[in-house]
Design a protein that fits this description.
The protein has 5 helices and 8 strands; from the N terminus they run E-H-E-H-E-H-E-H-E-E-E-E-H. It is α/β, with parallel strands linked by helices. Strands 1, 2, 3, 4, 5 and 6 form a 6-stranded parallel sheet that branches. It has a two-stranded antiparallel sheet with strand order 7-8.
Length: about 180
């Protein structure tokens, strides 16, 4: 898909750094399932640990690029695993960087869809809630309605992508609702 045919540009953020993570596989599956005219870039969350001492105009280049990617997106899709009943530190760190500068975050009013996943049948609902709470504090524009949680995620991934048609349809429907509400 070229930029000329993209009417909506999404930013996908996997809450895991693992190269073959389920969160990344979900985003890859969604990339392939998005309707015509909707594109999604997936961004790695390898950022330095948030430190207000370096959160200056001279902050690391990857921080500026991360914030700009959020600003340039029409919406953000965050896919997070659940680690020890909560969101992964790498995702919290990225959201902390994204929340600044105070009162001027690119996430303020930005449409955001959170998808959680877990090998457990609960699908990462506790991490999902933590991410929502953090986003509400910014305040991002969270998609209301049914939450997208992917339980038993390992059985739904094939060849490095989410392949479960029912989950893909449900998640793409949520993305459609997010874009319609922006």
């Amino acid at each position: 898909m070229t930029d000329a045919t993209v009417s909506a540009k999404l930013l996908g953020l996997p809450g895991s750094l693992r190269s073959n993570s389920n969160s990344l596989a979900i985003l890859r599956g969604l990339q392939d399932a998005l309707p015509a005219g909707v594109g999604m870039d997936i961004r790695d969350l390898r950022l330095p640990l948030y430190d207000q001492d370096i959160d200056t105009p001279d902050a690391p280049a990857e921080v500026h690029a991360f914030r700009q990617a959020i600003a340039d997106a029409d919406g953000v899709v965050i896919v997070t695993p659940e680690y020890n009943y909560g969101m992964p530190g790498v995702l919290k760190n990225a959201l902390d960087w994204a929340s600044r500068p105070y009162g001027k975050s690119a996430l303020i009013g930005k449409p955001v869809l959170v998808i959680s996943n877990s090998p457990a049948f609960t699908g990462g609902v506790r991490a999902h809630q933590q991410v929502n709470d953090t986003l509400l504090a910014l305040p991002a524009k969270l998609l209301g309605g049914p939450q997208v949680v992917v339980g038993g995620v390992g059985e739904k991934i094939k060849d490095g992508k989410l392949a479960d048609e029912a989950v893909l349809k449900f998640a793409v429907g949520a993305i459609d609702r997010m874009l319609a509400a922006k």
